[in-house]
Model the fold of this input.
Amino acid sequence: MDPIDLLGVADGFSDEERLIRDTVRDFVDAKVRPNVGRWFADGTFPRELAPELGELGLFGMHLQGYGCAGASATAYGIACMELEAVDSGLRSFVSVQGSLAMTAIHKFGSEDQKQQWLPKMATGEVIGCFGLTEPDFGSNPAGMRTTAREVNGEWILNGSKLWITNGGIADVAVVWARTEDRIRGFLVPRGTKGFTTRDIKDKLSLRASVTSELILEDCVLPADAVLPESRGVGAPLSCLNEARFGILWGAVGAARDCYATALDYAKTRVQFDRPIAGFQLTQEKLVGMVLELEKAFLAAVHIGRLKDAGKCRAEHVSFGKLNNVRAALDIARTARTILAASGITTEYSVLRHANNLESVLTYEGTSEIHTLVLGQAITGIGAYR
Done:
């Protein structure tokens, strides 16, 4: 039996899915894993990885056309799992580019907008971000205060967005704003007058990731900057659901890496003249971790297959995001106890994963919001207000 995949869940992957898994795993092991501890400690993200990630076809890989790979949802999920096995910041970079910014353009943009932006975003030549969250409106984006006024054939945007992944390095921002009658999406290229970004410093989580504030002060855009098919808050929320799907897979990768690290450490760390893996309390921790890991993995695969069959609902994604991130965070914390003092350094990944997962737990929908989504699904009664 494979001690990392005790149930052999990955045995059900197709040949193509295994190839994607192995290709992404080999890349991150060679290019990211040796350096990510330093990037995390320094609070930096190497944008120069973008073209290589694009060459692998990871940006918008689940989208059709415009240079995108057109892969299955499950294949995309597997890629997210391997990316986050190294660091949540790397998976976030890819998710925001593909599942948020590119998906918004692909779903709601004009043909000219798709042709202008998507091929260059697919290769990593152009980086995008997704400006929805505001300082006072996270879980309730419908209350956003950012406005867009149409004046003499142009759009004038005012407001700010906060906690925006990729914001400080993005070449184009998809910004959501309130017009006279509805919420709409706008493409705001870097360098547009009235548009600035400010990176958020001193983070204790997702340090190998760029997180920024977007500031719009009488930002003037041409008439064709609006995403013509974006009508109402349901448009950005549909993009968020795509990103959440990647998260529920990515959390499995982070959990797997923590468990594998703890298992390896326990088998080689000697106390009282024997490996600590031979002690009952350590085995209890390891067994508890692998149980939760495999259940999360099974949930991810099942939800992926539902999505490929066109049967996946938003509630399924909420189930996976809520369960898998919660399980991954518990696994990371337990793994840290096995590594003891060694677990607090960047030499090992477990506390870095735990810190990152604290952010993953609350972004793209907090655990409370996903709980209420599922509560409504099982009772038929909404409890948001």
